Hints:
Blueprint: E1 2-7, E2 13-19, E3 22-29, H1 35-49, E4 59-65, H2 69-86, E5 90-94, H3 95-100, E6 109-115, E7 121-123, E8 126-127, E9 134-135, E10 140-142, H4 144-154, E11 160-163, H5 166-177, E12 183-184, H6 194-206, H7 225-234
Parallel strand pairs: 1-4, 4-5, 6-11, 11-12
Antiparallel strand pairs: 1-2, 2-3, 6-7, 6-8, 7-10, 8-9
Helix pairs in contact: 1-2
Amino acid sequence: MKxxxxxxxxxxSSVALVEYGRILGEVEAALPREQLTWLIPAAKELLEKxxxxxxxxxxxxxxxxxxxxxxxxxxxxxxxxxxxxxxxPIASFKTLDAIACNAGEAAPFICPLIDARKGEIFCALYxxxxxxxxxxxxxxxxxxxELLEKxxxxxxxxxxxLMGNALNRYGELLRNGAPSGTVFLGEETWYPKxxxxxxxxxxxxxxxxxxxxxxxxxxxxxxPEAVVTWEKKYEA
Length: 236
């Protein structure tokens, strides 16, 4: 079974191919303004290097959000198009879930953080016990001060590991205000990895899960600004 992993939810994008629990190839690029021109060519080049084409795929795995509205739409549209053209299922995973998989056993509890802009941070709490992170909360959109309150509460259960691109903007604030013993993970853990997505997707598909192209939906967590602006403009 060959699974193509696709991620363009944040400012770094990646594609990878997995076959029966093995990552055959993975490429990554930090090109937030060039995702549209990078994603499909990168996937095509990766497959060709492995002597394959899109028609050799059995499924696609993709991040569904939250994240950049533009990046998410591109990743989802790419996955949907591939799935429709060659009639294969899609495995969809939340961005925070994918990031949490990068933490390993750095701490008993994991909290990935995504810069949501507009003074907010997307986050969720996970337990590091078991083979994969166990989600303890829903995805949340919090102000930095609200997040600090949550971290104090969550730390009562055990030491925390923080990771994610929100540390670029709020790292100093969180380092000064987070509970004692909190671990701050390096930038190599901050972004979803297409290889991890594809491995997760393979397990899901083999267990009978997956979505059709028509069923695939984005998990924005917060409505796109264009929609909010339109509603304000035309509200009675």
